């Protein structure tokens, strides 16, 4: 029925178009109307980034570069806007009808750029396809609580859950929840060379690894409508190339990949504007519980008592990052500075007392693992500074061990290091995704930490229907993590965009998950 309706619509449209062309070609109908004034000026922005784009398909790998393009090309049922941190309607208005039933009512008249209608059938297809493909590195595991999507009618999609999951509205804002055209995508394989979505832009040209051309999709209906006519995106090599592109005027906007030195030069000059916002990206040091040393709570707590985050931010990153005092960074619901509350300021005497009360003799030998490249150019300076701090206390004797990827990840997971350097970028804009990956047994960051208290609290917050109650529980979990110290947070990143002086609305381009949306850009 849906395909038949679309064919009828296409036939009708063709008839109207044919009539219009016939009228235009009829010279006996009088003189053609004369054009007046200048041609309409198109507002297109040139953009540069060091991102790597692995896939245009929302069911594909879930990396930052892919998310940036997908967020601009596809529509989701709900979205997060720059002025509101909680989900708002995009393609649909959604609500819980029961703790395990979430109903989304689609806007009528939605279409894809190819003219196909967007209905609940496309929504069901998109989620069924993503869960069926289970792409390695993709987002299917995020939707583990989803039992089924049903379609009572063309404008209604009903999500039935296996158990209550308060995270679902936030999950529906992610690019993993993008709605694709079921007539353009195969059910059993990825499509990496095109994108057929109903977002603010449509893809008009794409060269993998090099460039993408986006044009405003005028039929988009949602809160993210483009205020410009298009984006010409170029992928560049490094920070120097980014800086050169934006200072020379070859790019109106540049993001993702600036080094601290280049940013300082750009700020000191007068050619561009530099706008920053807190990033969702964090760095931390994780203990592994296979290590006899790291299993001792006093050792972990003493390290947490000694770490000087401000010194790390200054010496390793020239203050281009922000010291972080919880696993959950500021800006996410329920954030509390749990490590600051637990340990106050760095204090050698307090750390010595922790070791003494725990029956641990100083100095404690500690192997600190790290890997070059993966966690940025400041990683070496960061681990070196932490080693200096711990050694200077006289309470630890730290040995640094550098290993290239992917061997580093294998060794870290196996417990080859007492302590290891790592980072995290959440998959969805909710505090739960900063806690569950570290606390849940068998979750992504498997360091052997187990806490029945933390797991019980997470169960409660996921099932909670009241957001204030959720945030109270999330804050309590952060306190448990700070006390147990299975990991020690180091810093929160900043998302920085650099643009020409005449570019407007830059703060509105910065997304909570650290990708960039282009809709608000104006001149």
TrEMBL record:
Gene Ontology biological-process annotations: peptide transport
Boundaries of every Solute-binding protein family domain copy: 97-441
Entry GO MF terms: peptide transmembrane transporter activity
Pfam families xrefs: SBP_bac_5 (PF00496)
Signal peptide limits: 1-23
Main location group: other
Keywords: Signal, Transport
Ranges in a coiled coil: none
GO cellular component, one term: ATP-binding cassette (ABC) transporter complex
Localisation: Cell envelope
InterPro entries tied to this protein: Peptide/Ni-bd (IPR030678), SBP_5 (IPR039424), SBP_5_dom (IPR000914)
Family label: Belongs to the bacterial solute-binding protein 5 family.
Protein name as it appears in the record: Extracellular solute-binding protein family 5
